[in-house]
Each structure stands twice: as structure tokens, then as C-alpha cells.
Write a structure and sequence with these properties.
Elements (H helix, E strand, L loop, with lengths): L3 E9 L2 H12 L2 E6 L2 E5 L9 E6 L10 E5 L4 H14 L2 E2 L10 E4 L5 E4 L12 E8 L2 H12 L3 E3 L4 E5 L7 E6 L10 E7 L5 H11 L2 E8 L2 E7 L5 E6 L8
Parallel strand pairs: 1-4, 5-8, 9-12, 13-16
Antiparallel strand pairs: 1-13, 2-3, 3-4, 5-9, 6-7, 7-8, 10-11, 11-12, 14-15, 15-16
């Protein structure tokens, strides 16, 4: 395994503006600010080894995103503070049919859904982001694919929920939640994989294809030609060369 999970990428109408929202909300910092990409990362190098990347798009947001972030809280009071802070920064409450639940569902200034969770024991050591959550028809199948792609082992699996976490035990979870009415088509939030410059991109591509990925086509990423693929449930992701600025393949 050579590819690794590099970032959660957001297609954004105003990349710097929405990046500032997430940096303020999470207590993270803007580490890259270019016309083609704005990156936000945790300040602690021993924490979440994953960035949020915001790239410009002309595609309007349509249906609910299939990927969203769950934010952790330390107590019910902290959860309320997090919600109030998000609303003050430009988030809004939304109803996606969640009913009466102990977590709070919000949307960022560009409509990307996220949740502020009530305190949960499994997220006490994740940092600000508890989990990256993916809607899926088959949690076990998709968890197996992303475990192969990212190198994160499957920590728990079941018909309703499956979860991965880095073997280091640091940072957030990657969770797959059974959602029968999962939308298809282009998603405004997606995952990107990266590999090291010394690795063979053709071999990595072949390995991902064998695991169930399909090629969507070439795309200019970071000013360079890159490759967009899709996982077994058509969630698009990009394959990048791991470098200080996550250069494209």
C-alpha cells in the first residue's frame, strides 16, 4: 500500500471565504492560499494528518452531499458553544429529516452539511473533527475499498455502520453510514488520495482499479494534469502526488 488519504476536498464558490469559516470553527490555520486551492490544517503535527482543501468551482450545489464532517464535543455545554460559534460565523441550522436527535445538523456558508455531535466516548481523542462520514448503500463494501485505498484498517464493520481509523490511532475516523437513498452524480465534497513521488503511479492506479475504482477522466488539479477516479459507489476522488503542496499526478 502506497496511497494515503491526503485531504477532504470541497468544491467552493468562494474558496478563501469558506476556508476561513472552517479554520475559525475548528481552530485550524490556512496553510496554502492560492487561486486554485486553499488548504486548512490542524496546527498540531501529532494530531490529524489531513487537510481540508477548498477549490473553485462553477457547479452549483444541488442535493445533500454524500460526504460530511462530524465535529466532536467534550460536553453538552461545549456542544452548545460549538453550535453558537458556528452560527455566529455564518452557519445555519438545517433539516435533512434527522428528526429528534442529540446532535445538531448545520450547513456552512456554502450549504455543505455538517454535524456537531453530543459527547461520545469513541471520539474523545480525535481532535476537533470526530469523523468524515460517507453515505453508502453498503458500508462493509465501501469500507473495504477505502481501507485498501487509504491504508487505514477497518476498526468496526456492520450492515449499518463501518469505520476506519489510521493505524497510528491519531485523528478522526472515516465512517460509512448506510443510507439507502444515497444520491448519485457529482459531489461537492470528496476525498483525495496521494502517493509518494518515488512510487509508480501506474502501479498505484492498477491497484486501485483491482480494488473497485473506475476512471472518470483527466482533470487539471493544482495547475497540472491529474486523474479523477470513482469508488465502487461512484464517489469521485483524485489521485495526487504527495509533496509539500499535494501536486497532481
Amino acid at each position: 500500500m502506497s496511497t494515503r488519504l491526503a485531504c477532504v476536498a470541497f468544491d467552493a464558490d468562494r474558496p478563501r471565504s469558506v476556508a476561513d469559516f472552517w479554520a475559525e470553527l475548528l481552530g485550524w490555520t490556512v496553510t496554502i492560499d492560492r487561486p486554485d486551492a486553499v488548504d486548512v490544517a490542524a496546527p498540531d503535527p501529532d494530531g490529524l494528518d489531513l487537510t481540508l482543501t477548498f477549490r473553485p468551482t462553477t457547479r452549483a450545489k444541488g442535493s445533500k452531499n454524500r460526504i460530511h464532517l462530524d465535529l466532536a464535543s467534550r460536553s453538552l455545554d461545549h456542544q452548545r458553544v460549538q453550535v453558537d460559534r458556528a452560527l455566529a460565523l455564518g452557519a445555519r441550522r438545517i433539516d435533512i429529516g434527522q428528526g429528534t436527535v442529540p446532535w445538531v445538523v448545520l450547513a456552512d456558508p456554502e450549504g455543505n452539511e455538517f454535524c456537531v455531535l453530543e459527547p461520545r466516548e469513541e471520539y474523545v481523542d480525535t481532535g476537533a473533527v470526530a469523523a468524515i462520514v460517507v453515505d453508502t448503500n453498503d458500508p462493509v463494501r465501501l469500507a473495504e475499498f477505502w481501507s485498501t485505498a487509504s491504508g487505514w484498517p477497518v476498526a468496526h464493520g456492520g450492515a449499518q455502520v463501518a469505520g476506519l481509523r489510521s493505524a497510528t490511532g491519531l485523528g478522526c475516523w472515516l465512517e460509512f453510514i448506510r443510507t439507502p437513498d444515497t444520491e448519485r452524480g457529482r459531489n461537492r465534497v470528496h476525498l483525495d488520495l496521494a502517493f509518494f513521488p518515488s512510487d509508480d503511479p501506474a502501479a498505484e492506479l492498477a491497484r486501485l482499479r483491482a480494488a473497485g475504482a473506475t476512471e472518470v477522466g483527466p482533470e487539471v488539479i493544482g495547475g497540472a494534469p491529474g486523474l479523477v477516479l470513482a469508488d465502487p459507489e461512484t464517489n469521485e476522488f483524485r489521485l495526487l502526488r504527495l509533496a509539500s503542496d499535494y501536486s497532481a499526478v
